[in-house]
């Protein structure tokens, strides 16, 4: 009953506040608890590009030129928010995302160059998670998929989930950078592009995890002790899937993650069977209270669940990797926490 009541209350809040476009709207939208759903899982590969101009992107490259680059085929439009009202700027150097701070243009450029270079090398960097029939039946599923940042063959995997208040997917600050850094450390990392909305986002994450397990041999990954990462709304997704498992949201009956890594969210729900959890947040976050995160981690710790918590003075919401801030280096600490659970 606790689960259903929480969902009903959250749904009412979302409906009441659906016209609001402020940071306060994000707080209420990302607090909505999803209900259970059932879906199937099947893989398709994105086609690989050939004979494409290999010139590197720079901070002066127009965002629309990246989206329309022939190397990316149809999925170029998913690199940036599908709803363009949630980002501003015309070039990679002046990109800004709603509710995010500390965007590093050099990271943005590195990410799009990584995607293009690997595509030109013949690697599949994007995977559909729904069939053509499913997308035809529900056109919103056209705006989903997994970007794959390869690590060492046979290494463990992580799924990174961007925030965006369940209104859009801020992958360029909140999941692509994390996935790229994890791949540099040898891990296989996926960045999920999901349908906005707490329920649909969790369904897409459940489908993505099921997709990865189903295709582990092709992807050359180890499914043991995988990890779920997320910031803001994406952290809620990681936590919900960690607490209740993919099957609760339409995925397969699969093991829970070996670790959940959370950034800047006011998520307070937990269970006595939650996975080991790492969390970090800025003390000046006006959207996610660091005290709320601290209380949740303390509650998990009291149950004997391994935890690690960091809060950073003077830092606001959506700092991503935290390059050049008090949070710089947090990802290495999170990786060490994950490795300790292996």
Domain unit count: 1
Low-confidence stretches: 1-33, 35-53
CA-atom Rg in angstroms: 18 Å
Q: Mind telling me which CATH architecture this is? A: 3-Layer(aba) Sandwich
Q: Strand-residue fraction?
A: 15-25%
Mean pLDDT: 88
Biased composition (Polar residues): 38-48
Signal peptide: 1-23
Region (Disordered): 27-54
InterPro entries: AB_hydrolase_fold, BD-FAE-like_dom, GDXG_lipolytic_enzyme
Describe the structure.
This protein is α/β, with parallel strands linked by helices. It has one domain: Alpha/Beta hydrolase fold, catalytic domain (Rossmann fold), CATH 3.40.50. The protein is built from twelve helices and eleven strands. The strands form two sheets. A nine-stranded mixed beta sheet has the order 1-4-5-7-6-8-9-10-11, with helices on both faces. Strands 2-3 form a two-stranded antiparallel sheet. The model is unreliable at 1-33 and 35-53 (pLDDT under 50). Residues 27-54 are annotated as: Disordered. Keywords: Hydrolase, Signal. This is Alpha/beta hydrolase.
What's the topology here?
Blueprint (H helix, E strand, L loop, with lengths): L1 H15 L6 H8 L13 E2 L17 H5 L19 E2 L7 E2 L7 H16 L5 E3 L3 H6 L7 E5 L6 E6 L9 H4 L1 H9 L3 E6 L4 H17 L1 H4 L2 E10 L1 H12 L14 E5 L13 E6 L7 H13 L4 E6 L17 H11 L2
Helix pairs in contact: 8-10
Pfam families: BD-FAE (PF20434)
GO molecular function: hydrolase activity
Keywords: Hydrolase, Signal
